[in-house]
Design a protein that fits this description.
By secondary structure, this protein is mainly α. The protein has helices at residues 11-28, 35-51, 64-79. The chain has one domain (11-79). It is built from three helices and no strands. Helix 1 (11-28) runs antiparallel to helix 2 (35-51) and helix 2 (35-51) packs antiparallel against helix 3.
Length: 80
């Protein structure tokens, strides 16, 4: 991954962390009083990370700029 440009450096790590957070939310939903909410957030985050234009994406549908906006919407929604 040494040939990645300045903008691409570190996004692979961002994706791995998002996969881990999505998995944690889905797994935590089994112990939650509101399992549907946590599972829905986890699944939505999982979809978001799999469709962005990144190295660990299944489908490269959305740009990283759109992904960044969706990330912030997730943060606001989780803490609202």
């Amino acid at each position: 991954m040494g040939d990645l440009g300045r903008r691409g450096r570190g996004f692979w790590l961002h994706q791995i962390v998002e996969y881990l957070i999505a998995a944690a939310l889905i797994l935590m939903s089994a112990q939650s009083r509101h399992p549907l909410v946590l599972a829905a957030y986890g699944i939505a985050l999982l979809i978001n990370v799999t469709v962005v234009d990144g190295p660990f994406s299944a489908y490269k549908i959305i740009s990283r700029g759109v992904h960044r906006i969706i990330d912030w919407l997730f943060v606001v929604a989780l803490f609202a």
